């Protein structure tokens, strides 16, 4: 019996480039499927460099707390492709089941008939087909790469658009300065559709504001039209409609406070879905998003490390992602001092020096590991050299198990805080290695 992995593997031969930003192939594919993008539930479209997935997670938690049926589309997946497609269901959404995924992929393969198309485009078309066929109140749609020419940008009139934190990443596809990146992200803005902005640098905000003026999209700007802050161990959100006093989010790190604020602002910018303060409060304590400063209290990895070690997993992989992770870890250190040990693996398409430089003076050492089954992965030796260049002590290892064994053999004054980071692809391997189940 054909499985989804086998079908997706066949898709890889349909286009010579893994990434080729264009809408032409996507619209042609969707037309063959009967244009399911026109039969979707109301869409909240989310772009940005960092924080897209976390913002979607907050939106999902709030909408589901209010009893709404929520479809979710995110990428990349960590362990299984099914994680990208969450379908609304009673009691909360469920990852797409293998039989339904196989059927949708086979339909797309048959209709495409061997024409050139990227894997992301054809699998996004399959997701749209599933979303159109399954009743829901709302679809949370995360951009894959960029925005303007991303395969998800075929929805003519979303309910709202969101642009999370924008910084440098994917320069080979989006441009080599942050203003070019911002222009690509701003490509999801639509006329008369509210665009909600995470607080941005002046340069980024100026680019987005120019695009919004040109397409006549009203903007709601973080730090200007709404604000979020921590006060006395609580999360305080404020906009012109009033103030919310909420528990701190379940997702760790001050950067998640800002993502929560963007999600709240988004839902307060529309009148289709009504939420009570109690429902928003419940969402803050139930929200879940794997591999974003995720604590791993049990499993194979904690069992390999010194007793009482803290183990954290974060998929941060660009310079700004490293910055916010380092800020969160500095806060952890202030509250509870422990030796900080990084386990890192990175892709060759990422700025390893810039990412790891955020941890100089904070991490005691870096243990570098390979990322398996990825042709763009840097060798552990190359990542270790980048760490040393950033002023960090580093040791390269051939496997995850070897790295954890080396950490376990060290003599720490107190149990260490071990943070595994550098790539979402590595994060997926770590979750599988640890035996952590994703639902």
From TrEMBL:
Pathway: Cofactor biosynthesis; tetrahydrofolylpolyglutamate biosynthesis; Cofactor biosynthesis; tetrahydrofolate biosynthesis; 7,8-dihydrofolate from 2-amino-4-hydroxy-6-hydroxymethyl-7,8-dihydropteridine diphosphate and 4-aminobenzoate: step 2/2. Keywords: ATP-binding, Folate biosynthesis, Ligase, Magnesium, Metal-binding, Nucleotide-binding. GO terms for molecular function: dihydrofolate synthase activity; tetrahydrofolylpolyglutamate synthase activity. It catalyses: 10-formyltetrahydrofolyl-(gamma-L-Glu)(n) + L-glutamate + ATP = 10-formyltetrahydrofolyl-(gamma-L-Glu)(n+1) + ADP + phosphate + H(+); (6R)-5,10-methylenetetrahydrofolyl-(gamma-L-Glu)(n) + L-glutamate + ATP = (6R)-5,10-methylenetetrahydrofolyl-(gamma-L-Glu)(n+1) + ADP + phosphate + H(+); 7,8-dihydropteroate + L-glutamate + ATP = 7,8-dihydrofolate + ADP + phosphate + H(+); (6S)-5,6,7,8-tetrahydrofolyl-(gamma-L-Glu)(n) + L-glutamate + ATP = (6S)-5,6,7,8-tetrahydrofolyl-(gamma-L-Glu)(n+1) + ADP + phosphate + H(+). Residues 310-423 form the Mur ligase C-terminal domain. Pfam families: Mur_ligase_C (PF02875), Mur_ligase_M (PF08245). The keyword Ligase applies. This is Dihydrofolate synthase/folylpolyglutamate synthase. It comes from Labrys wisconsinensis.
């Amino acid at each position: 019996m054909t499985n989804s992995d086998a079908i997706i593997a066949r898709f890889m031969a349909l286009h010579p480039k893994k990434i080729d930003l264009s809408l032409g192939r996507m619209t042609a594919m969707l037309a063959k499927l009967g244009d399911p993008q026109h039969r979707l539930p109301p869409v909240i479209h989310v772009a940005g460099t960092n924080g897209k997935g976390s913002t979607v997670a907050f939106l999902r938690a709030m909408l589901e707390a209010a009893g709404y049926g929520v479809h979710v589309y995110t990428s990349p997946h960590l362990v299984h492709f099914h994680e990208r497609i969450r379908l609304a269901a009673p009691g909360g959404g469920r990852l797409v089941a293998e039989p339904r995924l196989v059927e949708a992929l086979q339909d797309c393969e048959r209709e495409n008939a061997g024409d050139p198309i990227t894997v992301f485009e054809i699998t996004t078309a399959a997701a749209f087909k599933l979303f159109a066929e399954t009743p829901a109140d709302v679809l949370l749609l995360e951009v894959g790469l960029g925005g303007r020419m991303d395969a998800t940008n075929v929805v003519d009139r979303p309910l709202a658009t969101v642009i999370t934190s924008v910084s440098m990443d994917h320069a080979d596809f989006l441009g080599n300065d942050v203003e070019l990146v911002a222009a690509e992200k701003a490509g999801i803005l639509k006329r008369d559709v509210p665009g909600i902005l995470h607080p941005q640098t002046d340069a980024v905000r100026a680019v987005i504001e120019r695009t919004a003026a040109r397409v006549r999209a009203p903007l709601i700007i973080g730090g200007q039209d709404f604000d979020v802050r921590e006060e006395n161990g609580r999360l305080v959100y404020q906009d012109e409609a009033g103030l919310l006093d909420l528990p701190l989010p379940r997702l760790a790190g001050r950067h998640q406070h800002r993502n929560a604020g963007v999600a709240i602002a988004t839902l307060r910018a529309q009148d289709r879905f009504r939420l009570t303060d109690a429902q928003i409060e419940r969402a803050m304590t139930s929200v879940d998003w794997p591999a974003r400063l995720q604590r791993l209290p049990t499993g194979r990895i904690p069992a390999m490390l010194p007793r009482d070690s803290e183990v954290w997993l974060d998929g941060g992989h660009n310079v700004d992602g490293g910055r916010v992770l380092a800020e969160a870890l500095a806060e952890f250190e202030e509250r509870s001092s422990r030796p900080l040990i990084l386990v890192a693996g990175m892709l060759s398409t990422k700025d390893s020096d810039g990412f790891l430089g955020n941890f100089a003076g904070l991490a005691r050492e870096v243990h570098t590991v390979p990322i398996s089954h990825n042709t763009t992965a840097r060798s552990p030796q190359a990542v270790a050299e980048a760490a040393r260049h950033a002023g960090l002590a580093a040791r390269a290892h051939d496997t995850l198990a070897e790295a954890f064994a080396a950490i376990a053999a060290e003599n720490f004054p107190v149990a260490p805080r071990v943070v595994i980071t550098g790539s979402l692809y590595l994060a997926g391997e770590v979750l599988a290695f640890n035996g952590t189940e994703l639902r």
